[in-house]
Amino acid sequence: MSPPAISSAIEREALQQAPAQAAAAHDAGASAGDYVALLKPRVMSLVVFTGLVGLYLAPGALHPYLAFIAILCIAVGAGASGAINMWYDRDIDAVMARTKNRPIPAGRVAPENALAFGVVLAVGAVALMGIAINWVAAALLALTIAFYVFVYTAWLKRRTPQNIVIGGAAGAFPPMIGWAAVTGDVTLAPLVLFLLIFMWTPPHFWALALYRAGDYAKAGVPMLPVVRGDRETRKQILIYTILLVPVALAPAYIGLSGPVYGAAAAALSAGFLAHAGRVFVTRSDAAAKRMFGFSIAYLFGLFAMLVVDRAMGLGW
């Protein structure tokens, strides 16, 4: 082979190897913590808790080892969704103050490695749930991952201010998955738990969007405050919070819980409604921040009281 041909072959080989070398260099500074961050552990914690409550409330029982596997699959599936979401949203994450230090936009994890990480975890979680638990729970887990990745992240998030309203379904599935892991089916009770999280999601995220509207506008994400303005967003927060109250009380109506949960849900809902009222009246970012913080405690408190009520033998 002539020297020019040899040189050309070397150049072609270098070009072919460049992407792999770039990815390796991109990931050279990645730590285990960066890959954990891809899983969105703070979001995962609430997902795992609501899934665990669904499992606990379901009639029947799982062996503790199988129950652990079911919750692990829910956690890993949620984390996989988060990793794929970060891969897809890496462009907008890079321009938002809240997300610019995530592992991909910060340059610590290569995008293709984050995607591979998420896909492997997603497939593994669904397969393990099906093999070890049952295929109804596995199908619901697969639906949750697909809904979050394809419906919310890839379709709704950048196209409509209703992204959170419809996309919130993805975060509402875990109690149904936990229930189905025990029973192998879905009945009215887990559907009520699904509806509870589904109705909670819009006021929760719109409160955040109110004081992060500039970030979302800069990234081109059509959150409600960006598209319709603060006034309409505050009105919608109040409307959805009012609609949420009877849903929060519904477990007591249908016999899933007893009076302890009913009283706690009424008190918590009154507090949440008071926050929504202050957001509507005061029109301040401080009120929106306080409501966002309370919203997390609110949902955690409702599901915690479902457990307390059942432990006291007052529910089904």
CATH topology of the largest domain: Tetracycline Repressor, domain 2
- Span from first to last CA? 81 Å
Structural class of the secondary structure composition? Answer: mainly alpha
- What is the class of the largest domain in the CATH system? Mainly Alpha
Q: What portion of residues belong to β-strands? A: under 5%
Topology overview:
Elements: H1 3-27, H2 32-38, H3 41-57, H4 64-88, H5 90-93, H6 111-132, H7 135-156, H8 163-167, H9 169-172, H10 174-183, H11 188-211, H12 213-219, H13 224-227, H14 230-253, H15 259-282, H16 285-311
Helix pairs in contact: 2-4, 3-4, 3-10, 3-16, 4-6, 4-7, 4-10, 6-7, 7-10, 10-11, 11-14, 11-16, 14-15, 15-16
If you had to describe this structure to a student in words, what would you say it looks like?
The protein is mostly helical and 316 residues long. The protein has two domains: 35-184, Tetracycline Repressor, domain 2 (Orthogonal Bundle), CATH 1.10.357.140; 187-316, Four Helix Bundle (Hemerythrin (Met), subunit A). It has helices at residues 3-27, 32-38, 41-57, 64-88, 90-93, 111-132, 135-156, 163-167, 169-172, 174-183, 188-211, 213-219, 224-227, 230-253, 259-282, 285-311. It is flat. The model is unreliable at 2-25 (pLDDT under 50).
